[in-house]
Give the backbone structure.
Amino acid sequence: MSLDERAGGLLTIDLGAIAANYQFLARTAATGCAAVVKADAYGLGMDRVAPALAAAGCRAFFVALADEGIALRRLLPDADIYILNGPPIGAEGDLVAQNLTPVLNDLDQVGRWAAAAAGRDAPLAAILHVDTGMSRLGLDGQETKRLAAEPDRLAGIDIAYLMSHLACAEEPDHPKNAEQLAAFRAARQTLGALPGGASFANSSGIFLGPDYRFDLVRPGAALYGVNPTPDKPNPMAQAVHLQGRILQLRDVDRPMTVGYGATHSVARKGKIITVSVGYADGYLRSLSNRGSARIGAVPLPVLGRVSMDLITLDASDAPDDAVRPGALVDLIGPGHDVDALAAEAGTTGYEILTSLGPRYARRYTDGNG
Ligand SMILES: *Cc1c(COP(=O)(O)O)cnc(C)c1O
């Protein structure tokens, strides 16, 4: 018996959809298009996703951590690989050895990268990050002015891009978008004639219009099917199909409670199924009494609390022949995509994807499903 048949759940990842999403975003942006593959390509498996993106034409990749970059370098010997969190203290030499390009997020990181560049024949590439309103990473206004006044701090560094990051891009009417754009343009002026281009937009930022796109866009979530335009229909192809296996079927014909804490009471006659997926698989506990699965188009509401390894679903409306031990139900799939499950959980598609656990049997397809 294969893992696919034994596993409590099946996670099918459509690399063809991810490649098509990359090409759609690159066409829409009509400028350079990188791919953000941090956190194991948002939980979908960087070792499979990154080569598929490279085959789709992507040359520039962003990860968060140095070690993610080292792993990616083994997969893609020739790609431009950028480390969003910058060089870890003391790891500058490792980045140089692996040909990884850091994002420099403050003057300390600038100083450490300049020190690594000192005495080398060729300059070391970097991205310079200015904060325009996230207050998370990036040079603040004072640091930006200081760097402009002391350009020698960048000696030996070849700035590939000046970048910043949007805080509210998925809300097109949010005034912060235009404020950040103005602040980014002001920072470019302050810094004067830096070599290289500019990079500003994440997935949603691409859809704010041409002013936001500059020379390199940095989509992540939209590649994996998350809707970058939550107030409009999702233009992205779905990349994830998540199924859970039915373990037990229970006919209910008298009042009873379901699960830990007895938080749900069944009143009507019906069917309850127990499915072999739980919060240890990233089926978030906040889906207790709120989430739903599907058999075909029939919704199966989560009854009671999500347990570590199990959920219980109301299958009363599902056809009898589909509800049997060993059969599969859709947890994320047609008609109930990653954003729909995220809404039920009170979170984002980002968190749903990056929470997908290691116990699923993972399958990669290159087709339309
Ligand atoms: C994660 C990240 C991105 C990608 O954002 P998405 O919303 O997933 O497209 C882009 N830029 C930076 C700086 C990031 O941290």
